[in-house]
Design a protein that fits this description.
CATH topology of the domain at 3-185: Serine Threonine Protein Phosphatase 5, Tetratricopeptide repeat
CATH class of the domain at 3-185: Mainly Alpha
Structural class: mainly alpha
Distance between the termini: 11 Å
CATH architecture of the domain at 3-185: Alpha Horseshoe
Shape: elongated
Radius of gyration: 31 Å
Number of strands: 0
Order of helices and strands: HHHHHHHHHHHHHHHHHHHH
Helix content: over 70%
Largest sheet: none
């Protein structure tokens, strides 16, 4: 049983446990009432269940059903006992019969859907879980279970909708986020297959495949595919943009500059490409005035692009114009106060201005944020390894 299946089984137990407290006396059977004999059997079933004697409790509920076959809560409680013993094959027909008598037992609806899911009968599970979600969209357990069923049926788009509904309720569930990412990756691969099916020689196919590789941090593979796309569509700014960006991610600054220049020759208003061109010049320790020229234009065209403000400040500090750099850095700090490097550059600017108190303050903030960032990255890597291990 996978970690997700174990989670679903645990969820089902917590959801269904309350049904043991639903006394048949509080419901009407098909005959219109409940006999004293049935009441006595119910009390004995509850007592046996509370003492952990599930075999006796199961026998008592079966006896109740033999006496009064129209008593819906007895089917619900017997189905719950069988389900929580993972006897899904026996639980399913009991729950289904109870729902024929009383179709409004939501707990039985969820359990029946889960029982079919655990039996691998996803087609039979789907309508019951859809019904449970429709009755109560805030039921996180039903949303998660339905997501799995839909994925098993190849209905990825619908599964994403229910996974997102689940994560809106349980935003800290890392396994669910991992599953959502895997689902998007599966859709990307399906899209690539369709693109290649339509035209295997299309540059779009290389772009889609390159995006998948880039998403998995396989930058070398992405670079090869984006180069092929550029060769097939040299007048498309998007092909150059993708290739330039992967060069930029790999730290190949000279190659990145060349491709960003090509992007801007085809799409001169692309302020993101212009910012990254200026950044690549800075990273390569190139001509500061050239970098500043690109960054100034990027900011004129997209004044809210904070990365360009930070890089312009870096260039100004290196040009011994620290005072002119401060407005950009203070704007960036207000926009993103938890980015360590902004505080590092602020400290550099204040140092050039001789403001030692501010230098000390900014370096303290930088050290604290950098430590938190490193710890968060370490935790993320550890969690990803655990999730991958659990998924396999």
């Amino acid at each position: 049983m996978s970690s997700f299946h174990r989670k679903i089984a645990t969820i089902a137990f917590s959801v269904c446990l309350f049904s043991a407290a639903v006394a048949p006396a509080s419901a009407q059977s098909s005959s219109g009432g409940v006999s004293p004999q049935v009441q006595q059997l119910y009390s004995q079933a509850v007592a046996a269940q509370q003492s952990g004697d599930l075999e006796t409790a199961t026998a008592k509920y079966r006896a109740m059903i033999r006496i009064d076959p129209g008593l819906a809560p007895a089917y619900n409680n017997l189905g719950m006992l069988l389900f929580n013993q993972r006897n899904y094959a026996a639980a399913a027909p009991v729950l289904a019969r109870g729902l024929e008598i009383n179709p409004h037992m939501t707990t039985s609806v969820i359990m029946l859907g889960l029982a079919y899911f655990e039996l691998g009968e996803n087609t039979r599970a789907e309508p019951w879980l859809q019904r449970a979600v429709h009755a109560d969209p805030s039921n996180a357990d039903a949303q998660l279970s339905l997501s799995h069923v839909l994925l098993n049926l190849g209905k990825s788009q619908q599964a994403i909708s229910h996974l997102r509904a689940y994560l809106a309720i349980k935003p800290r569930d890392q396994q669910a986020w991992y599953l959502l990412g895997e689902t998007y990756l599966r859709l990307s691969e399906e899209a690539l297959g369709k693109v290649r099916e339509i035209n295997p020689n299309s540059f779009v196919a290389d772009e889609v495949a390159g995006e998948i590789d880039q998403g998995m941090h396989n930058y070398g593979g992405a670079m090869v595919l984006f180069k092929k796309a550029v060769d097939l569509a040299p007048q498309d700014p998007g092909t150059h943009q993708r290739l330039a960006n992967v060069y930029w991610l790999m730290g190949k600054w000279q190659s990145a500059q060349a491709e960003f220049h090509k992007v801007l020759s085809l799409a001169p208003g692309d302020c993101q490409a212009r910012w990254k061109l200026g950044n690549a010049i800075l990273q390569a320790n190139g001509a500061l005035q050239s970098a500043l020229k690109e960054l100034n234009r990027s900011i004129r065209e997209c004044p809210d692009l904070m990365q360009a403000h930070v890089d312009r400040a870096r260039a100004l500090i290196q040009l011994n114009q620290a005072r002119e750099a401060l407005p950009d850095l203070l704007m960036a700090e207000k926009s993103n106060p938890n980015e360590p490097m902004i505080h590092f550059y602020l400290a550099s600017a204040y140092r050039a201005e001789g403001q030692t108190d501010q230098v000390r303050r900014q370096m303290n903030i930088y050290a604290k944020l950098q430590q938190e960032k490193s710890q968060a990255l370490s935790n993320q890597v550890s969690e990803e390894l655990k999730l991958k291990s659990a998924a396999h």
